[in-house]
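From the thread on structure requests for the teaching lab: each student submitted one protein with a one-line request. Submission from student K.M.:

"Model VOC family protein from Streptomyces edwardsiae, tokens only."
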Amino acid sequence: MTDARGKARPNGEAPARHTPGTPCWVSLMVHGLETTEEFYGALFGWEFRPGPEQLGPYVRALLDGREVAGMGVLPPDRDLPIAWTPYFASDDVDRTADVVRSCGGTIGVGPLDAADAGRLAIGSDPCGAVFGVWQASAAPGTAVSGVPGTPAWNELATFESTNTAKFYETVFGYDEEPVVSADLDYVTLHLDGRPVAGVHGLGNALPRDRGPHWTTYFTVPDTDEAVTRLRHLGGHVLTPAHEGPRGRTALVTDPEGARFALLQTPG
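Reply posted by the TA:
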């Protein structure tokens, strides 16, 4: 995760307003908020405080008093998956929502105000992957990065990368860097010359029970130790810990089935 100038914030400095298109927040909607807080609190050391409740009960997760992520209760009248949703910064969420629609995506929630913190929308790309758009006011978004328990990367699993990447490029102004390989369909999305997200085309290997979806990677000091702790807390392992392009990674779920990845970066 990067701030408006694309620099990491390992010491927890408060962020400036994010450059439009920057991944700036992640949020999870679940059925059981209290048990979910207990799970992630024990896994990442998060503490929680109440947040805006436009979509129902909602809390912000904190590390050393700095905001890291959000969690809410899944509204019964909203057709949203139990999943971590990345939010991308915008200077005008209403205008971004219009661009999403004009490019074949949909807006399922909003745009609406989140108290005095900012303005948001939740939409999906033409293949159905859900993402959020955040226009900051009082709260620019994730306030610390580069330390255990913080979001480190967001990656989209979809059918194919080329057309999907074009959608996000049009909406958020990214540049793309495709992987030149006959065996890997992957595009890295760049903003101001820095990688901010990935698009992985899986074709028929995309899980049928999940469809196109974003996965958030959270930094941990030791992936294998974090996997062991996750199992004890009631989570499940989808892909065992292995060496990947960004470090030692494991794909996991929380007890309600929300997918995310654990990432131990080299060094």
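TA comment: Confidence is low (pLDDT under 50) at residues 1-15. The first strand starts at residue 23 and ends at 30.
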